[in-house]
C-alpha cells in the first residue's frame, strides 16, 4: 500500500461535507491541540484530523482512508507511551468528542464511548458506588487501556479491563459497524481483548461494574533506598500471600516534594510502596500492617480516601508535556537477581522523574486461561516498568539508553513477555506482547484487516502484508 501526499481541496471538502463532527487541517484553530498527545517525544502532523460525532463519522473516515491509501491512526485518550495515536501525512481519527458514559445501576453495567478517560468513567460509576478495573491515571483513555488488557488497582480482585468487557461496537477495515460479544462475532471479540487496536475502531464499550468504595485504603510507605534490598525481599514475600482486595506497587524513584516527606530527602532515590485495599477498611488496616511496621520507613501516608481521589492522585506526577520512554518485562517472581538489577539501575536514573516501578498483578487476572483472550500473560505476578521521563530533547539518547540497559539486565530472568500498553517501541516487540496467541492473531488479521489498515499500533502483520507495501 502506498501512502499518498496530503489531501487535496476537493477531497477535503467531500470529507467535511460527509462528516457530522469536526474535520481539521494544519492551520485550523483546533488542529495543534488535536494532534498533541501525552508523550511530548511525539510531534507528528496528520494531513487531516477527523473528530467524529458518532459511529457514522468513524465509518466515513475509515472508508475515506482506505479508498485513498492513507495512513490511518486512532486517538482515544492519547496516553499511549509509544505515540500510536498520531501519524504523519495521513488521517487521524480523534475520538475525544465521543466520551459519553451511561451507567445502568440495576444491571451494574456501563456503556462507554471511545473518547472517555478513566476520570469520565470513574465519575459516573462512583455516583452509584460502582467501578471497573482500568488505568491508575485519570487522564488515561478507556479505549487504549482496555484494548491492551487493562491493569489497575482493582485488577487482582476483578481481573483486567478486558475480563469485564461484555460487548463492543467496532468499525472494521471495510468500514462496517458490527457488534462483538462472547456469542456474536466471537473471534473478533477474542482478538479485541488484548489485540491493541489491530482489528478495528471501537465506538462503544460495555463493561461489567462492581461495588467499590466510595472509600478505599490507599497511600505510600516511603523507605530510604539503602534499605531497598531488604524491603523488596519483604515485599515479594508479602505480596505472595496478600488477599485479592490488596494490591501493592513498589517504585524506585527520586522523592517528590510532597508535604509528608522531609525536605532533606527531596530528590534523593527512595523506595515507595503504594498500598491499596478495596474492602472493609479495618480489614485493610490489618492486612497492610506488616508492611507498615517493617523496617524504619521515612513516611507512612496510608489512609482511607475516596476511590475517585485514588484514581487521580498520581496525575500531577505523570502530567502531559514531558518526554517518555518505557519498557516493561513480565515476571512470575522477584528473584534476588531481579531485585539487585532494579536497585543498580534505579541508582543510575538519568532524571529525577525516571523510575523503576513494580506492578503487582496475579489474583483474578491469572484465573483466566492464557488463550481465552488475546492478552496471553496469565502467569504474570509482576510487571517491572522501566520508565524514563525528561524535558530536554538533548537527553533523549541518554534516557533511552538507560531504559534499554536496565530492561536487558532484567530480561535475563523475566518471562519473555511484555505488557503491550507499557511498551515504548512501536515495532519489534509484538511476539513478546502477544506471545503464544500471536499466530491466531495473524489468522484473524488476515480475515479482518488483510491490507493492514489498522497498523499504527504494536502491529500484528497480516500474512500477505508485503504485497500492499
From TrEMBL:
Keyword Oxidoreductase on entry: yes
Domain spans labelled FAD-binding PCMH-type: 41-212
Transmembrane segments: none
Keyword Zinc-finger belongs to the record: no
An annotated Gene Ontology molecular function: FAD binding
Domain of life: Archaea
Pfam family, one: BBE
Sorted UniProt keywords: FAD, Flavoprotein, Oxidoreductase
Reported cofactor(s): FAD
Family label: Belongs to the oxygen-dependent FAD-linked oxidoreductase family.
Name under which the protein is recorded: FAD-binding protein
Amino acid at each position: 500500500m502506498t501512502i499518498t501526499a496530503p489531501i487535496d481541496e476537493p477531497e477535503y471538502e467531500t470529507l467535511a461535507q460527509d462528516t457530522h463532527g469536526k474535520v481539521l487541517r494544519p492551520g485550523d484553530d483546533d488542529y495543534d491541540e488535536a494532534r498533541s498527545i501525552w508523550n511530548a517525544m511525539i510531534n507528528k502532523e496528520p494531513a487531516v484530523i477527523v473528530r467524529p460525532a458518532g459511529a457514522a463519522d468513524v465509518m466515513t473516515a475509515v472508508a475515506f482512508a482506505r479508498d485513498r491509501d492513507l495512513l490511518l491512526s486512532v486517538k482515544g485518550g492519547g496516553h499511549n507511551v509509544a505515540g500510536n495515536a498520531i501519524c504523519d501525512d495521513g488521517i487521524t481519527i480523534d475520538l475525544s468528542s465521543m466520551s459519553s458514559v451511561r451507567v445502568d445501576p440495576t444491571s451494574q453495567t456501563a456503556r462507554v464511548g471511545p473518547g472517555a478517560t478513566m476520570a469520565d468513567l470513574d465519575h459516573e460509576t462512583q455516583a452509584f458506588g460502582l467501578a471497573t478495573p482500568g488505568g491508575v491515571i485519570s487522564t488515561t483513555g478507556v479505549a487504549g487501556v482496555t484494548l491492551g488488557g487493562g491493569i489497575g488497582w482493582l485488577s487482582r480482585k476483578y481481573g483486567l479491563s478486558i475480563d469485564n468487557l461484555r460487548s463492543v461496537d467496532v468499525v472494521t477495515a471495510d468500514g462496517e459497524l458490527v457488534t462483538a460479544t462472547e456469542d456474536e462475532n466471537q473471534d473478533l471479540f477474542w482478538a479485541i481483548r488484548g489485540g491493541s487496536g489491530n482489528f478495528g475502531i471501537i465506538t462503544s464499550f460495555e463493561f461489567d461494574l462492581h461495588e467499590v468504595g466510595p472509600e478505599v485504603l490507599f497511600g505510600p510507605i516511603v523507605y530510604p533506598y539503602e534499605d531497598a534490598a531488604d524491603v523488596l525481599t519483604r515485599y515479594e514475600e508479602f505480596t505472595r500471600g496478600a488477599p485479592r482486595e490488596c494490591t501493592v506497587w513498589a517504585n524506585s524513584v527520586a522523592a517528590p516534594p510532597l508535604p509528608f516527606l522531609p525536605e532533606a530527602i527531596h530528590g534523593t532515590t527512595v523506595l515507595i510502596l503504594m498500598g491499596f485495599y478495596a474492602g472493609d477498611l479495618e480489614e485493610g488496616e490489618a492486612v497492610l500492617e506488616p508492611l507498615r511496621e517493617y523496617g524504619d520507613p521515612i513516611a507512612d501516608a496510608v489512609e482511607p480516601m475516596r476511590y475517585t481521589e485514588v484514581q487521580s492522585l498520581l496525575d500531577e506526577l505523570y502530567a502531559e508535556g514531558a518526554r517518555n520512554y518505557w519498557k516493561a518485562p513480565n515476571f512470575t517472581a522477584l528473584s534476588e537477581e531481579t531485585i539487585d538489577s532494579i536497585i543498580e539501575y534505579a541508582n543510575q536514573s538519568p532524571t529525577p522523574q525516571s523510575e523503576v516501578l513494580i506492578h503487582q498483578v496475579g489474583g483474578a487476572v491469572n484465573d483466566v486461561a492464557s488463550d481465552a483472550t488475546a492478552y496471553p500473560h496469565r502467569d504474570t505476578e509482576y510487571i517491572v516498568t522501566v520508565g524514563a521521563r525528561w524535558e530536554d530533547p538533548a537527553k533523549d539518547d541518554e534516557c533511552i539508553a538507560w531504559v534499554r540497559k536496565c530492561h536487558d539486565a532484567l530480561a535475563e530472568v523475566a518471562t519473555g513477555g511484555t505488557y503491550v500498553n507499557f511498551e515504548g517501541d512501536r515495532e519489534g516487540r509484538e511476539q513478546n506482547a502477544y506471545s503464544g496467541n500471536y499466530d491466531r492473531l495473524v489468522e484473524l488479521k488476515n480475515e479482518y484487516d488483510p491490507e493492514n489498515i489498522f497498523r499504527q499500533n504494536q502491529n500484528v502483520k497480516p500474512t500477505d502484508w508485503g504485497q500492499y507495501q
